[in-house]
Amino acid sequence: MAQSISWAARRRAIVIIILAFIVAIIAFSFHRTVLYNAPSCTDGVQNQNETGVDCGGVCPYLCTTQVEQPVVQFVRAIQNGGGRTDIIAYVENQNVSAGVSHAPYTIDMYGQEGTVIATHSGFVTLLPHTVTPIFIPGVAHGSIKITNAFLTFNTKKMHWVKRTATVSLLPFSNIQVTQGTVPHITATITNPYTTVYRNLRVIISVFDRNDNIIAVSQTIVPVLQGLGTAPLVFTWGGPFSSVPVREDLFSILPLNGQ
Q: Could you read off the pLDDT of 144-191 as tens digits, one per residue?
């Protein structure tokens, strides 16, 4: 009788152990599939092979320690005729294999008394290893005079991505300058790629013999077909302040070149 009771107890123990094992497997599976969050590039934790929190390694975004921050070459206030003041800035991305889309910036504009009279915030895309213009027309009108302007980036909100090849800027040709009371410049833009560009923004800066910017303008190309060309016309409401000797033209492309 004692042996029978002992065997029954052992059998119950074995059943309990098996049930506990099954419950443990179910609980582990539930934790893995429902509660457990696999490491990712958006979990706010430095894991996987990341260089920093959610950056570097397998993640698409680069860490700030892996890139050079943008260099602001200059910011100028330009009198563009008709009492209108425009702002033009050149920003250089020195990174050969890194770019950033929608980089947030702020331009503070100062008057003759050294006080801020206007502020403009926006976003810009910086292609790898290129200089990008930031053109803001009509920041001031009438007698308001801007004597200085400074551009800063919010680097904490800039998400740099790896780009192994630089996106080539589109070439320009047939540049013709017509001076006078209402000057204009014509040119041709060529698309050497099969990509079709829509609402393509093109900016032109005009320099005098002392390498000072004397005029800036922009135009929009509604459609630039792949392997095609399009005419460009830039106009101003008043004469140039000095004789133009050089022009910079820029096509504003997305980071992926598409």
A: 889 999 999 999 999 999 886 555 689 999 999 999 999 999 999 999
- Asked if 87 and 78 count as a contact pair (C-beta separation under 8 A), the reply is yes
User: Which residues fall within 8 angstroms of residue 244, CB to CB, at 6 or more apart?
Assistant: 177, 179, 206, 207, 208, 214, 215
Q: Which of 57, 55, 29, 27 is nearest to 42 (CA)?
A: 55
Tokens encoding 132: 């990008």
Strands (E), 94-245: 98-110, 116-126, 130-141, 148-153, 160-162, 172-178, 184-190, 197-207, 213-224, 229-235
pLDDT tens for 34-83 read 555 678 888 889 998 888 998 998 998 999 899 999 999 999 999 876 78
Domains of the chain with bracketed CATH? 67-162 (2.60.40.10), 172-252 (2.60.40.10)
Weakest-pLDDT range from 4-8, 111-115, 203-207:
4-8
**C-beta separation of 226 from 196 below 8 A:** yes
Q: Which residues, in sequence order, are bridge partners of residue 197?
A: 224
Q: Residue 237 corresponds to which tokens in the numbers above?
A: 């409401």
pLDDT tens digits along 114-142: 999 999 999 999 999 999 999 999 998 88
Place of tokens 């425009």: 86
Q: Give the predicted TM-score (pTM) of the model.
A: 0.82
Count the neighbouring beta carbons within 10 Å of the beta carbon of residue 252.
19
What ranges make up the beta strands (E) of 26-171? 71-79, 84-93, 98-110, 116-126, 130-141, 148-153, 160-162
